[in-house]
Automatic annotation (TrEMBL):
<dbReference type="InterPro" id="IPR049179">
    <property type="entry name" value="T2SSK_SAM-like_2nd"/>
</dbReference>
<dbReference type="InterPro" id="IPR049031">
    <property type="entry name" value="T2SSK_SAM-like_1st"/>
</dbReference>
<dbReference type="InterPro" id="IPR045584">
    <property type="entry name" value="Pilin-like"/>
</dbReference>
<dbReference type="InterPro" id="IPR005628">
    <property type="entry name" value="GspK"/>
</dbReference>
<dbReference type="GO" id="GO:0009306">
    <property type="term" value="P:protein secretion"/>
</dbReference>
<dbReference type="InterPro" id="IPR038072">
    <property type="entry name" value="GspK_central_sf"/>
</dbReference>
<feature type="domain" description="T2SS protein K second SAM-like">
    <location>
        <begin position="236"/>
        <end position="299"/>
    </location>
</feature>
<keyword id="KW-0813">Transport</keyword>
<dbReference type="Pfam" id="PF03934">
    <property type="entry name" value="T2SSK"/>
</dbReference>
<keyword id="KW-0997">Cell inner membrane</keyword>
<feature type="transmembrane region" description="Helical">
    <location>
        <begin position="22"/>
        <end position="42"/>
    </location>
</feature>
<dbReference type="GO" id="GO:0005886">
    <property type="term" value="C:plasma membrane"/>
</dbReference>
<keyword id="KW-0472">Membrane</keyword>
<keyword id="KW-0812">Transmembrane</keyword>
<feature type="domain" description="T2SS protein K first SAM-like">
    <location>
        <begin position="116"/>
        <end position="230"/>
    </location>
</feature>
<comment type="similarity">
    <text>Belongs to the GSP K family.</text>
</comment>
<protein>
    <recommendedName>
        <fullName>Type II secretion system protein K</fullName>
    </recommendedName>
</protein>
């Protein structure tokens, strides 16, 4: 066999080997690419998982900082309120804007007296025996209507309508209090239907589901109202009212103007009033005769408080709102907790 024949026979073998090497190289590159993609995906997921775990850890730590603020508030109330004849703004619990540094964060909290705001549960109607029984506004309902007239000039409905709608939201029956009120059938006929609670409120945020109330109405009313769980009494502590909330006194006493109510609060002794005689003898109330119902609603102490605690830890934050009660055994217990801002 000559040289040309040998070369002609070996040529296809060289071409076949080169082609196989090219295919193998492509396969290796594809495997490497897949491994790189898998590694990148795993790295991304690992980073996400680590970040998620860090967020959970930070949020948990912020939560426990807020719970620590609640425990501190219970101790503070025990030391400054229990055993005192009055509850007033000169006491240590009433200090506002306190902030405490902690490891990698801060804890801030404010305590307010829930007898210095209007308890919405006081608007609950007494159930009527039949539909023909005439519904009359109670003293708390009349006071609430006056509050709306004094402070919510831009309310999107007449004050008596909103008063009646809240009352019907709270009462146990399905009878309309007035023609402008709303009951179960009205809520059930909405595009997104729901039923009236027919029980006491647990949070003032429930106002947002009252028929016809707007976000602007809610924001305007929020500074003056509160909810005490499972309590329908309207009691106003004259020792914890401020210039901003003095209107509650004017709402409760029709003959008293808001300006006169502010003057009365500004004339209050530093340690607060101690008896009704202290206020009835004032120039603002000297010519006003208080009814027994109103007298019974004016108090100088309180059993219910609200803590708003804000905790920050690294990049996380936590807001805790707690309702605290001073029990008959002089203990401070937690009635309710809410996590997050009230909105």
């Amino acid at each position: 066999m000559n040289t040309q024949q040998v070369q002609a026979k070996q040529a296809p073998l060289k071409y076949s080997a080169t082609r196989q090497n090219g295919v193998a190289l492509i396969a290796v590159l594809m495997v490497i690419a897949i491994v790189v993609i898998i590694a990148a995906t795993m790295t991304s997921r690992l980073r996400l998982q680590i970040q998620r775990q860090q967020n959970i850890q930070q949020q948990t730590q912020a939560f426990w900082y807020a719970m620590a603020a609640e425990q501190f508030s219970r101790v503070l109330l025990t030391r400054t309120v229990v055993g005192e004849e009055t509850v007033n703004l000169s006491q240590q619990w009433a200090m506002q804007g306190a902030t405490f540094p902690v490891d990698n964060g801060t804890i801030a909290g404010d305590i307010t007296d829930l007898r210095s705001c209007f308890n919405l549960n006081a608007l609950q109607n007494v159930s009527r025996a039949n539909a023909s029984a005439k519904a009359e506004f109670s003293v708390p309902q009349q006071a609430f209507q006056r509050l709306l007239e004094l402070k919510l000039a831009d309310l999107t409905m007449p004050p008596e309508y909103l008063t009646a709608r809240i009352a019907d939201w709270l009462d146990e029956d399905s009878l309309l209090m007035t023609s402008g009120s709303a009951e179960e059938d009205d809520y059930a006929s909405l595009v997104y239907p729901y039923y009236a609670a027919n029980t006491l409120m647990a949070s003032p945020s429930e106002l947002r589901v009252i028929l016809g109330i707007t976000p602007a109405d809610y924001q305007a009313l929020a500074p003056y109202v509160c909810v005490i769980p499972d309590n329908r009494d309207l009691l106003i502590n004259l020792n914890t009212l401020t210039e901003e909330t003095a209107v509650l006194l004017a709402a409760l006493i029709p003959q008293l103007t808001e300006e006169a109510a502010i003057e009365l609060i500004n004339s209050r002794p530093e340690s607060g009033f101690t008896s009704l005689e202290d206020i009835t003898s004032s120039s603002q109330l000297a010519d006003i005769v208080l009814t027994d119902d109103v007298k019974n609603m004016l108090v100088f102490t309180s059993k219910y408080f609200k803590l708003t605690a804000t905790a920050a830890y690294l990049e996380s934050g936590f807001v805790l709102t707690s309702v605290l009660e001073k029990t008959n055994t002089n203990k401070i217990k937690v009635l309710a907790r809410r996590f997050g801002d009230q909105g």
